[in-house]
Amino acid sequence: MEYPPFVLGHSRFDQTKFSGRLRHLLDITDPRTLFTSKAQLKECVTLLDDFKNERVPEGTTDKQLWEAQKVKQSIIHPDTGKQIFMPFRMSGYVPFGTPIVVGMLLPNLTFNQMIFWQWLNQSHNACFNYSNRNATKPTPTSKFVMGYLGAVTSAISIAVGLSKLIKKANKFSPATKMFIQRFVPFPAVASANVCNVLLMRNNELTEGIEVMDKNYNVVGTSKVAAKKAVLSTAGTRIVLPAPILIIPPIVMSLLEKTRFLQRNPRYHIVFNAIACTLSFGFALPATIALFPQYAKIARKDLEPEIQAATTEDILIFNKGL
């Protein structure tokens, strides 16, 4: 069914399947929600409040309820109840992030230009992470600052370092060097992502995270699950930037061989922007959908106090993305 019976706070797509997770991600990143007016947002919030209090107006459809929830979730932070600044919403990630990706993938960047685009990218990511943070528990601002500084430092260091190595490589022709140079942003961003996760979520390793049964009832807090969650997320963050930082350079290297671009080099940035936008808008959600947000862990691998609190053999935890 396109619009199943409405369930407040749940996704209308099956999150146990890749197709369901992909459709969910395409739904929450829908840029059309950026144009929602204050009046429309108020109507959506009121409708959901009415549903929660069991006084839904007669004639209200499941479609209206699902669409209202989509709008509210795309604009309002679930923990703080405040509106998220437009550039840092999930629905704004592609429109506002694409120009930065285009800049990072421009050919023949100078070291200063490279540093600028890497800094801007990590600054955008830091603001996005902070705006969409889990605010159920207070997190010191110093954690976000450490994550930001670590990400910026690692991204710039690796980007500049690899670029210098490529330029000093005498075995490669100028054309080969230029081709390899296109892929420098990927290891720089991937390493920055890992650094950011390890610094930002370090407190989870010392405090643990909640572990739940199959009905999502919390049975305890586990440091073992926290370690698995952080390491799994770090691995995921290496893969996630791959489609937007690898696919466009490959596409552009092929397009540059066509007569059209050779005769009209001024259109290079246009095609580069199109390749980045399509990759950002479709390949990235598909990559994220590969990784379920919840993971399973055997009861016997957890702390004794959690083993004593439940009889279920397999438990689940939110590993994050």
* Gross geometry: globular
Structural class: mainly alpha
Number of strands: 4
Unreliably modeled segments: none
- Strand share of the residues? 5-15%
What is the share of helical residues? 55-70%
Biggest β-sheet: strands ordered side by side in the sheet? 1-2
Q: Characterize the biggest β-sheet.
A: 2 strands, antiparallel
Mean pLDDT, nearest integer? 90
Distance between the termini: 28 Å
Query: What's the gyration radius in Å?
Result: 22 Å
Count the DSSP helices.
14
SSE topology string: HHHHHHHHHEEHHHHEHE
Concise overview:
The chain is 61% helix and 6% strand. With 321 residues, it is mainly alpha-helical.
Describe this structure in words.
The protein is mostly helical and 321 residues long. 61% of the residues lie in helices and 6% in strands. The protein has a two-stranded antiparallel ribbon. The chain has a two-stranded antiparallel ribbon with strand order 3-4. Strand 1 and strand 2 (218-222) form a beta hairpin. The longest helix is centred in the middle third of the chain and has 28 residues, at 141-168. The model has no long low-confidence stretch (mean pLDDT 90).
